[in-house]
Amino acid sequence: FNLEIPKRIEQAKELKEEGNDLFKQKRYREAIIKYEDGHDYLVQMPNDCIDDEVKTLQNSMTLNMAKCHINLFEYVYAMKVLEKYFVFKSLKVLFGLDLNINSICF
Known about the structure:
Blueprint: H1 5-24, H2 28-43, H3 52-71, H4 75-85, H5 91-104
Helix pairs in contact: 1-2, 1-3, 2-3, 3-4
Protein backbone atom coordinates (compact mmCIF):
# COMPACT_ATOMS: atom_id res chain seq x y z
CA PHE A 1 0.00 0.00 0.00
CA ASN A 2 3.01 2.26 -0.34
CA LEU A 3 1.72 3.91 -3.50
CA GLU A 4 1.41 7.53 -4.51
CA ILE A 5 -2.10 8.98 -4.21
CA PRO A 6 -3.06 8.86 -7.93
CA LYS A 7 -1.81 5.27 -8.16
CA ARG A 8 -3.85 4.31 -5.09
CA ILE A 9 -6.98 5.76 -6.65
CA GLU A 10 -6.30 4.02 -9.97
CA GLN A 11 -5.64 0.69 -8.25
CA ALA A 12 -8.85 1.04 -6.24
CA LYS A 13 -10.81 1.76 -9.43
CA GLU A 14 -9.34 -1.32 -11.10
CA LEU A 15 -10.23 -3.51 -8.13
CA LYS A 16 -13.76 -2.10 -8.12
CA GLU A 17 -14.14 -2.95 -11.82
CA GLU A 18 -12.84 -6.47 -11.18
CA GLY A 19 -15.37 -6.76 -8.36
CA ASN A 20 -18.12 -5.53 -10.67
CA ASP A 21 -17.20 -8.17 -13.26
CA LEU A 22 -17.28 -10.89 -10.59
CA PHE A 23 -20.60 -9.56 -9.29
CA LYS A 24 -22.12 -9.81 -12.78
CA GLN A 25 -20.98 -13.44 -12.85
CA LYS A 26 -22.66 -13.98 -9.45
CA ARG A 27 -19.28 -14.70 -7.88
CA TYR A 28 -20.17 -12.63 -4.85
CA ARG A 29 -17.56 -13.86 -2.37
CA GLU A 30 -14.75 -13.11 -4.81
CA ALA A 31 -16.29 -9.72 -5.57
CA ILE A 32 -16.36 -8.86 -1.87
CA ILE A 33 -12.62 -9.48 -1.66
CA LYS A 34 -11.95 -7.16 -4.61
CA TYR A 35 -14.11 -4.42 -3.10
CA GLU A 36 -12.42 -4.82 0.30
CA ASP A 37 -8.97 -4.64 -1.28
CA GLY A 38 -9.94 -1.57 -3.27
CA HIS A 39 -11.38 0.07 -0.20
CA ASP A 40 -8.17 -0.64 1.73
CA TYR A 41 -6.14 1.32 -0.83
CA LEU A 42 -8.30 4.36 -0.15
CA VAL A 43 -8.66 4.05 3.61
CA GLN A 44 -4.95 4.48 4.10
CA MET A 45 -4.87 7.81 2.27
CA PRO A 46 -4.23 11.00 4.26
CA ASN A 47 -7.46 12.86 5.06
CA ASP A 48 -6.40 15.94 3.14
CA CYS A 49 -6.19 13.83 -0.05
CA ILE A 50 -9.72 12.46 0.21
CA ASP A 51 -11.88 14.43 -2.21
CA ASP A 52 -15.39 13.81 -3.53
CA GLU A 53 -14.13 11.34 -6.14
CA VAL A 54 -12.45 9.22 -3.44
CA LYS A 55 -15.48 9.41 -1.15
CA THR A 56 -17.76 8.34 -3.99
CA LEU A 57 -15.47 5.44 -4.84
CA GLN A 58 -15.32 4.37 -1.17
CA ASN A 59 -19.09 4.57 -0.79
CA SER A 60 -19.69 2.66 -4.00
CA MET A 61 -17.42 -0.20 -2.96
CA THR A 62 -19.00 -0.31 0.49
CA LEU A 63 -22.50 -0.50 -0.99
CA ASN A 64 -21.35 -3.12 -3.48
CA MET A 65 -19.93 -5.26 -0.65
CA ALA A 66 -23.25 -4.98 1.18
CA LYS A 67 -25.18 -5.95 -1.93
CA CYS A 68 -22.98 -9.03 -2.39
CA HIS A 69 -23.79 -10.09 1.16
CA ILE A 70 -27.49 -9.43 0.56
CA ASN A 71 -27.39 -11.61 -2.56
CA LEU A 72 -25.78 -14.35 -0.47
CA PHE A 73 -28.60 -13.92 2.09
CA GLU A 74 -26.01 -12.79 4.63
CA TYR A 75 -28.00 -9.90 5.98
CA VAL A 76 -26.06 -9.62 9.23
CA TYR A 77 -22.80 -9.30 7.30
CA ALA A 78 -24.37 -6.71 5.02
CA MET A 79 -25.37 -4.68 8.07
CA LYS A 80 -21.90 -5.05 9.58
CA VAL A 81 -20.27 -3.77 6.38
CA LEU A 82 -22.60 -0.80 6.33
CA GLU A 83 -22.13 -0.09 10.04
CA LYS A 84 -18.37 -0.27 9.64
CA TYR A 85 -18.25 2.35 6.91
CA PHE A 86 -21.40 4.41 7.44
CA VAL A 87 -23.15 6.02 10.37
CA PHE A 88 -26.91 5.54 10.15
CA LYS A 89 -29.27 8.08 11.64
CA SER A 90 -32.30 5.81 11.49
CA LEU A 91 -33.37 2.32 10.49
CA LYS A 92 -35.33 3.90 7.64
CA VAL A 93 -32.04 4.66 5.90
CA LEU A 94 -30.99 1.03 6.16
CA PHE A 95 -34.26 -0.36 4.89
CA GLY A 96 -34.41 2.22 2.12
CA LEU A 97 -30.90 1.23 1.08
CA ASP A 98 -31.96 -2.39 0.70
CA LEU A 99 -34.86 -1.40 -1.53
CA ASN A 100 -32.94 1.06 -3.70
CA ILE A 101 -29.47 -0.42 -3.76
CA ASN A 102 -29.60 -1.16 -7.52
CA SER A 103 -29.86 2.53 -8.32
CA ILE A 104 -26.84 3.57 -6.27
CA CYS A 105 -24.32 0.78 -6.84
CA PHE A 106 -21.89 0.33 -9.70
